[in-house]
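Blinded run. Sample ID left blank on purpose so nobody reads anything into the name before looking at the predicted structure. Input follows.
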Amino acid sequence: MATDPDTITFLLEQMAGAGNITSRRMFGEYALYCDGKVVAFVCDDQLFLKPTPEGRALLGTPTEAPAYPGSKMYYLIETELDEPDALARLIATTAAALPEPKPKAPRKPKR
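Blinded prediction complete.
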């Protein structure tokens, strides 16, 4: 089951206080970005946050689950979805803990 676009709209509104929040559709699901860093995935209308020690400190004992079959474990975010301030703090904290994305290599011209 693919994620409903209304779920993405709701999540982006809820985390608006975290910074520049954007989404990108990938393989029928979504990646969520905070200030240019991938911080979470939304699969089957569920929010999966990239694991960091800083995120764990905010969550306490988070539920961990794979975002899709065969993926690594992520923090499954449920109760914070209805708390915009807590969710924004969690997203911003996770983004700050993640490394800067690697610059993309320039595209080679087609022959």
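Unblinding after everyone has recorded impressions. The longest helix spans residues 84-97.
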